[in-house]
Amino acid sequence: MSPLFQxxxxxxxxAAAAELRPDFYSQTCPNAEFIVRDVMIKALIREPRxxxxxxxxxxxxxxxxxxxxxxxxxxxxxxxGEKQALSNINSLRSxxxxxxxxxxxxxxxxxxxxxxxxxxxxxxxxxxxxxxxDWKVRLGRLDSLSPWLEESNxxxxxxxxxxxxxxxxxxxxxxxxxxxxxxxxxxxxxxxxCFSIMFRLYNQSGTGQPDPAIEPKYREKLNxxxxxxxxxxxxxxxxxxxxVFDNQYFKDLVxxxxxxxxxxxxYTFKQTRNFVKLFSKDQSEFxxxxxxxxxxxxxxxxxxxxxxxxxxxxxxxxxxxSLTLGxxxxxxxx
Length: 334
Known about the structure:
Layout: H1 3-14, H2 32-46, H3 48-62, H4 95-108, H5 115-129, E1 143-144, H6 149-155, H7 163-171, H8 177-184, E2 191-193, H9 198-202, H10 216-225, E3 235-237, H11 248-254, H12 261-268, H13 270-281, H14 283-298, E4 306-307, E5 321-324, E6 327-330
């Protein structure tokens, strides 16, 4: 692990999550959560897959230097954004839904609701609106002043990751094995690209053979979806009920029908298998563990200066005040 990565993990661990609270906008923007949910409902009607894509943003944001909306920043002429990271490019999508939410909030509560909080609220709504649990989110985050491309490339796991690697990664963020399995269950909705599974179908571990963990009939289905000459941006369902948030994902893993290697490995690996079995049989236990994991993930913070962006894709003019967790910091115009 690089010293830079260790430093960011330390900052995240040291940050005080106690400043986050469910009623953060109750006085300043009491309709904030209603506005977010209203836009998410419209997005779900317009394109069901979009809400799953929005939900993924919380993972790709919070694991990289805390939940600070850095993943939303566009490239600038001099600084590439996290959208160019290996795990994000040609993969993360539906940023326009966040834009729509921000625009609606700015009309009612200008300059008050952070993009980082929008991501957290929208991720929760993606789960709740598709049949999953609902919960009170803790709010009060600030938006980062820069992206973290290098850190994103170093931290975010690959679809090829195995359970052992994922356990070690999540442990660095004080997320348990149960948290890992429950949070992986967010793959209950949405799709993934053929790009992410070509090695599983045709060259698992460099053998020139398919992954033996794939159930044979399911492998035939995947071979038809993703032949060797396929456009690798073609997508497949992450589980058998991709528009409904339920525990079907875990039932599929037990049956050898996990789409991604990083999914199926949760059943083939001894340390995670029992949680997969539990969640496949008891949806209420999955939902309870998911809520706990999402709250822990959302609590990841850092001690970097921040602000409330007016546009989630770009930092504000540096001549205005930016915030830190300890108070205000005046930025001079360059």
